Every structure is written in structure tokens, then in C-alpha cells.
Amino acid sequence: MSEQSVVVVAHYRAQEGNDDTVAQLLAEYAPLVQAEPGCEAFTAHRASEDPREFVLFEQYRDRAAFDAHVESVHFLEIARDRIRPMLDSRDVMLYGGALES
Smallest Cα–Cα separation from 6: which of 31, 39, 44, 37? Predict the structure, then answer.
């Protein structure tokens, strides 16, 4: 039996005046995450009605792949050190594998 995949849904609210920079950094960050061996999906979206709002959808093969992601250089240098300081809020929820009947 294989380990459950890890799904991450993150909601970001950029500080006033930082939304375009956050969008640019997420565009730079996305292909780096997508290239990780354990990454099965990564997309970042900007809200149509409020350009300061972002949602990220991520899926990793298993917990080890997610742990490797949060220890990666691009996570630390871009997500943690550059994006987070420009946010008013950040809500991240981790989920297990898909429910199946």
C-alpha cells in the first residue's frame, strides 16, 4: 500500500500595493515547484474580483515529497523569504488522499 498523497490549498492576501509583485513571484516560483520529483500538481491563481487575493493548489506524491518541497531552496528563498513578508494573510490547509467509494 502506498502512502497518501498530500494536497495543499493555500489562500494568500497580498498587502496593498504588493499584489503585482506577489503575482510575479508566484509565476517565477511555479515552474520550480512543478519540476520537483514528488510534485504532481502546482497552480497559482489570482482572483478576478480582487487582485490582492490568490489561491494555490498543490499536490505531492506523499508526505516525504511535501517535506522535501518545504525544505527546497526555492521554497525558502521565494515563498518564505520574499512572498510571505508581502502578505496580509496566509491560510494553508493540508489534505490527505482523495476519498473514494
Answer: 39
